[in-house]
Amino acid sequence: MITGLFLLAASGLNAQAISGFSPEAAKKQRQLEATFDESLKKENLDAWMQRMAAEPHWVGTDYGAENARWMKEQFESWGYDARIDTYQVLFPYPRVRLLEMTAPERYTATLEAVAVEGDPYTAQGEALLPSYNAFSTDGDVEAELVFVNYGVPSDYEELEKLGIDVRGKIVIAKYYGSWRGIKPKLAAEKGAIGCIIYSDPEDDGYYQGDVYPEGAFKNSTGVQRGSVMDMPLYPGDVLTPGYGATEDADRLDRQEAPTITKIPVLPISYADAEPLLRALQGPVAQASWRGALPLTYHIGPGPARVRLKLEFEWSLQPAHNVIATLKGSEFPDQWVIRGNHHDAWVHGASDPVSGMVALMEEARAVGQLAKKGNRPKRTLVYCAWDAEEPGLIGSTEWVEDHLPELREKAVAYVNTDGNGRGFLGVGGSHSLQTMVSEVAGDVPDPQTDVSVKERRIAAQLTRGSDADFELSALGSGSDYTPFIQHAGIASLNLGFGGESSGGEYHTIYDTYPHYTRFKDPGFQYGVALAKTAGRIVLRLANAEVLPFDFKPWQATVSGYLDEVMETADKLRKEVEQHNKLVARNAYTLAADPTKPMPKPEIKAAVPYLDFSPLQNAVASLKDRVEEVSKLDTASLSKAQKERLNQLLMHAEQQLTSPEGLPRRSWYKHQIYAPGFYTGYGVKTLPGVREAIEQKNWEEAESQIEKLAGTLNGMAEYLRKIQEVQP
């Protein structure tokens, strides 16, 4: 019998149990999965990567469209109904890129990566997309240069302590430390007129290991492309916020689009950055700011003075999403959606083709099962997204265009992106944690005799972490974003990595030779990804009762609340300590006593926030989840199970609010969101947490009440689930 909403496969009571399946159904499901595993062929992943990554294929290219048509044909040959959904999206192509130092000496940046011996793809010349940051604004600016470390909020706090103002200056920031789009966003808010981003070899170059082609890491001319669209405001087409970019859609004027950067921004190599940094004077950068270039890192401003000139061709380009559907045998209107993007900045062997070919092999094997009479009970929708790289555009437009239907029919969305050798990483809706843990325990690791779950836990223990298998929270950075954070669809993002580091990311070096030498030789982990994601998809598709478990979710939310309260308490103590030091004239000033410094001021006190509405809501949720977990689904009739599944598949939507988060209404989810100043990085309980971090106490109080209402609403929704009785 099925005891409760899920089966505890890890309990030792029944090693063959699977959440949502009766013992007999679990036995059949495991037989199905064994057949699925046997049909997976790494040779397909190898051949398909060579085909898809043979030429550059960013959004709007002929080769990108050719790849989409080819994938559609493959899905059709495997028994899927496939189509291409095309959207017209704004995409800027760089026409003018000029960066030159005009003082104290002259230097013109090359802005070019060199071809390397043994990799013919890097020598394709004009076919390669120039290095740039998509959705930088056009501009021609000249000013003194200031080094701002990673260009994150804490770095500007340090600059303020040194009395350094970036107003009217051009800043140079290192990649890493935050998502790249935060760097020009914050620089503009601080008054800078331009932004340069470079890869320091300490983070992404010879300091990490041998550089390409001898090793995997970034050589001195490599440049990381990438979008700087203000995605924490909203992702997707910048001209159609909240609705699909169809051919006849109403569009904003480009000058009014809020997610295009306010200042010009350009990425450069560390070869081009070195002369600029060497010419800086001013204070020596503190130790934590210094990189691995052979120079003394100064902050400026000046005497280095630079000119940055950028011009783009702004045009609508077609984004081709491939949508392949395998209709369910019993529940055709319940959709399990699986996706990976297919566009790349250049060749994209690692990002995204390594994930895309694993998805395709998974879909081929599932189609083969269906042809032999094992059609999934629920409908599977396999998606190959276009225009992910410039801002999650293809998936966002599709979700916005199909939002009512998705909210009605979607069970869950399972996402992958790039993949490599190493350890399983999974983030997502914590109501799916139990099911994912079971799957991870069933998939063998290609390099060891243990499961991918056991190998991950072993890695956690070596880093001093605990032995629990837990999902991370989803921020942004891939195509799950519109599903979970806008549509409220339970989502997962998974992939392998940790033993496949390299400097190819978004460069001309992300090629088939680089991938097969350094990322996943033999495509063993590509097959492991297909096994893992394939099991998740098949179990969601075939479960008698959908395998949502709210105990891990409730415990996780409770932990988030503890973190938020601790954040407020820590901030209060820091302010109190600061004010005590100022009052005693014991505040430590600059190391250089001859340099005039701003006098420390008394900071406004941090009030005691009333978290009791949230504490009460979380306590009520715990009680409700305990009751729901006792539900004996084995005794339910077929109609009752169908009613229960309808409730389960829409549970995640109860965690959204129609008005969304403050100042960014596109983000509806009240538990997970990308941070306003972290970009990809997640902020959990974002409305409350960010109000506290921004010291907006009135908003913090209102967000506490709002979130408490959301959680109380979820408790009432769980009551409906509890009431589905035999």
Describe the structure.
The protein is of the alpha/beta class. The protein has helices spanning 23-39, 42-52, 62-77, 153-161, 182-189, 201-204, 270-278, 349-371, 393-401, 403-409, 433-442, 452-462, 481-486, 512-519, 524-542, 550-583, 612-629, 638-649, 686-693, 697-722, and strands spanning 81-103, 107-108, 133-134, 139-147, 170-174, 194-198, 226-227, 265-268, 305-326, 331-341, 378-385, 410-415, 422-428, 491-498, 672-674, 682-684. Strand 4 (139-147), helix 4 and strand 5 (170-174) form a beta-alpha-beta unit. The longest helix is centred in the C-terminal third of the chain and has 34 residues, at 550-583. The radius of gyration is 26 Å and the shape is globular.
Brief overview:
The protein has 20 helices and 16 strands. The protein is α/β, with parallel strands linked by helices.
DSSP E strands, number: 16
Count of DSSP-assigned helices: 20
Shape field: globular
How much of the sequence lies in strands comes to: 15-25%
How far the N terminus sits from the C terminus, by CA atoms, comes to: 14 Å
> Roughly how many Å is the radius of gyration?
26 Å
Q: What's the level 1 CATH class of the largest domain?
A: Alpha Beta
* Helix/sheet category: alpha/beta
Instruction: Name the CATH superfamily assignment of the largest domain.
Output: Zn peptidases
Largest sheet: 12 strands, mixed
Helix content: 25-40%
Oligomer: single chain
- Indicate the low-confidence ranges by residue numbers: 6-14
Q: What's the architecture of the largest domain in CATH terms? A: 3-Layer(aba) Sandwich
Report the average pLDDT across residues.
Answer: 95
CATH fold naming of the largest domain: Aminopeptidase
How many structural domains?
3
